[in-house]
User: What shape does this take?
Amino acid sequence: MSRNANLWRTSTFRLAAAYLLVFVLSVGAILAYIYWNTAVLLERQTDETIRAEIRGLNEQYRFGSITALANVVEQRSVRNSERGIYSIFDQQGRRLAGNLQGVPSGVTGTSGWLEFPYEVFNGNSIKQHSGRAFFTRLRGGYLLVVGRDVEERRQFATLIRQSTFIAIGMALVFGLGGGLLMSRNFLRRIDVISDTSKAIMAGGLSERMPVRGTNDEIDRLSGNLNNMLDQIERLMTGMREVSDNVAHDLKTPLTRLKARVEAALRQDTKASYKEALVETIEEADQLLATFNALLSIARTEAGQTSEQMEPLDVSEVAEEMAELYQPLVEDAGGTFEFSGTPDLKVTASRQLLAQAISNLIDNALKYAPPQEGENRALEIALLVQRVKDKIEVTVADNGPGIPETEREHVLQRFVRLDTSRSQPGSGLGLSLVAGVARLHGGALVFRDGKVGFEACLELPAAA
Ligand SMILES: Nc1ncnc2c1ncn2[C@@H]1O[C@H](COP(=O)(O)OP(=O)(O)O)[C@@H](O)[C@H]1O
Ligand SMILES: [Mg+2]
Assistant: This one.
């Protein structure tokens, strides 16, 4: 019941009702126009003709005798094509000529209009018709009646009047029915959306609005709501992961830190205090770096950065990184090669892009140097190039690389390969690179290239 009551309040229904009103009014106006033109106007014209005829006959009588007038009246009355009514009676009401049986009822005074039923001989049957006539008393008390058979016109007028009511009635029924149906259908779809929202608010975040595929307004609304829900779900999952990670992975360094301080207290020597303090500072630095990395990743994944996105020359940013890392690589006994094409533009945050490139070079520097007994020198290359509508920033090294099976896995937060445990790190570097790539609409891909392992940051070229 409440749903029906709601129906009257929907905008669709009100719109339908307004249209209906306009429709009914125009139907009424059209029929009124037809009625006016046919019934009223025709009647006026007929009245005009009758008056003219009366005047003519009157004239003839003035210059002639009553017998001459009776002759004319008789002639016209048999000319049946116009269904004319012509009669002339004497003072006693006896018919002298014409097609009326007797003096029509309602004749009073000297002249006036009459509407009366009269009988028409139609071959072999007699029919009752309506007539409309003008009567006038002539000199000598004779009564002249001239009129027309208006039966057909009366029937036509009645027909139009009836049609008007039927048409308006039908318009009301169909319009109202259509309006109800339309708004019902509309309401049902809105109800589904609000039911789904309730289910989502009750915790079913994976519920989605139904989409029909017709791409109409409601479909687009549902689509947008679904996109919004996807985004919210992704953020919620991200948040949960981050808090799980933080709880799990920051516990170890904090426990270690506490144990170290306790040990120093127990030893109670100046040297042990000093050593513990130095190590605590190192550990704290590491913790701070981890926190910062986690925050950056969370922010990039949420799709928001405090950094401004601007059109950047990628080679320029990469060259700065190259200048920073070249001495470090050479100190480690390796070679560093940079090659960039100038004027490759992407819309990006300078700080995040630099951070991502630096993370990739840092990894190469940590994990690619030759192991003991290996007979090769470290080679690292940084390459910026355009491939179709993408700009690729590739860091290549001649180290062992990441095994094919681990390439997905290392993108997760805190994941480090067992072979890398000897190097410092928190396992967040690649997660941040992947996050930066996604934030800029690109991707981080690993492949095996000419030199060796390649980590490639693909970004969409700015228009
Ligand atoms: N260039 C590389 N060569 C070999 N292994 C790599 C390379 N880059 C990354 N890895 C592996 O991926 C893991 C994750 O890297 P990352 O997320 O940067 O964390 P971190 O460097 O702190 O360990 C590293 O621990 C390492 O095992
Ligand atoms: Mg790293």
